[in-house]
Amino acid sequence: MVVASAACDPLADDGRDYAARITAAGGRAEWLLDEGLVHGWLRARHTVPRARAAFDRLCARLAGMTAA
């Protein structure tokens, strides 16, 4: 599982904690923190270059996890 958080989001730490709990329980999880992005950044991936780059990183991590 990949958990993505935006640094400018009050829920960002929740993503970190969620990934840590999954890992502690024996699961596989990675946490991605994207600086300069806000909650809901995914909707802007077609118009905001920083959001597009974050989306591409997220997709790459997901692809890497499914290939293993």
Task: From the structure above, extract its key features.
2 helices, 68 residues, alpha+beta, two-stranded parallel ribbon
Describe the 3D structure.
The protein is of the alpha+beta class and 68 residues long. It has one domain (2-67). It has helices at residues 12-24, 49-67; strands at residues 2-8, 30-38. Strands 1-2 form a two-stranded parallel ribbon. The longest helix has 19 residues, at 49-67. It is flat. The mean pLDDT is 93.
Largest pleated sheet = 2 strands, parallel
Mean pLDDT over the residues: 93
Q: Which percent range describes the beta-strand content?
A: 15-25%
Give the low-confidence spans.
none
Strand elements, count: 2
User: Helical residue percent?
Assistant: 40-55%
Tell me the strand order in the biggest sheet. Answer: 1-2
Helical segment tally? Answer: 2
Coarse structural class: alpha+beta
Q: Calculate Rg over CA atoms.
A: 12 Å
Helix and strand arrangement:
Elements: E1 2-8, H1 12-24, E2 30-38, H2 49-67
